[in-house]
Amino acid sequence: MSVRLDDIDQKILSQLQEDASQSLDEIAKKVGSSKTPVWNRIRKLKDAGIIGQQTVILDAEALGFEACFFVLIRTSEHDAAWQGQFLTALKKRPEVQEAHRLAGEIDYILKVRVRNARAYDAFYQALISEVKVHNVTALLSMEEIKATTALPI
């Protein structure tokens, strides 16, 4: 479903991406509107599926999750049964923050957040015990340079 966004909608979405905990009054003031029209627009954007789940972003390092690994997976299996088993294994692992199926030499890339290298090894051992993979390469992120969930609207 394609939804046309006007300037006010885009401003509202930008404000929500920046800080969704803002009051309707604050958002309305920043976008040059009043509270009720902003609330109606937000409701319409939710109904259209443009605004999804609302949550908070936690500081992983402050909570002791100091290691971020990007895991490159190649598989020799490409049938639906294997893929279903793989997806089930990934979905039940809370360490997996993101998972993408790729085009090219690498089949999947995972973003895995854990406390340390031992915790990554436990994750890895659990994953390969549940599903057969051809090759796994883990890359440790030395520094997070940029991270955002905001879209460039």
Chain-wise SSE layout:
Blueprint: H1 7-18, H2 24-31, H3 35-47, E1 67-74, H4 80-91, E2 96-101, E3 108-114, H5 117-130, E4 135-140
Antiparallel strand pairs: 1-3, 1-4, 2-3
Pfam family, one: HTH_24
Keywords: DNA-binding, Transcription, Transcription regulation
Protein name: AsnC family transcriptional regulator
Structural class: alpha+beta
CATH topology of the largest domain: Alpha-Beta Plaits
Strand order, largest beta sheet: 2-3-1-4
Low-confidence stretches: none
The CATH class name of the largest domain reads Alpha Beta
Oligomer classification? single chain
**Average pLDDT number:** 96
The total count of helices amounts to 5
The count of DSSP E runs of length 2 or more, i.e. the number of strands, is: 4
Short description:
This protein has 153 residues and is of the alpha+beta class. Helices cover 39% and strands 18% of the residues.
Descriptive key words:
four-stranded antiparallel beta sheet, 2 domains, alpha+beta, 153 residues, 18% strand, elongated, Arc Repressor Mutant, subunit A, Alpha-Beta Plaits
Verbal overview:
By secondary structure, the protein is of the alpha+beta class. It contains 5 helices and 4 strands. The chain folds into 2 domains: 41 residues, Winged helix-like DNA-binding domain superfamily/Winged helix DNA-binding domain (Arc Repressor Mutant, subunit A, Orthogonal Bundle); 74 residues, Lrp/AsnC effector binding domain/regulation of amino acid metabolism (RAM) domain (Alpha-Beta Plaits). Strand 2 and strand 3 form a beta hairpin. It is elongated and about 55 Å long. It starts with 6 loop residues before the first helix and ends in a 13-residue tail after the last strand. Keywords: DNA-binding, Transcription, Transcription regulation. InterPro entries: ArsR-like_HTH, AsnC-type_HTH_dom, Dimeric_a/b-barrel, Tscrpt_reg_AsnC-like, Tscrpt_reg_AsnC/Lrp_C, Tscrpt_reg_HTH_AsnC-type_CS, WH-like_DNA-bd_sf, WH_DNA-bd_sf.
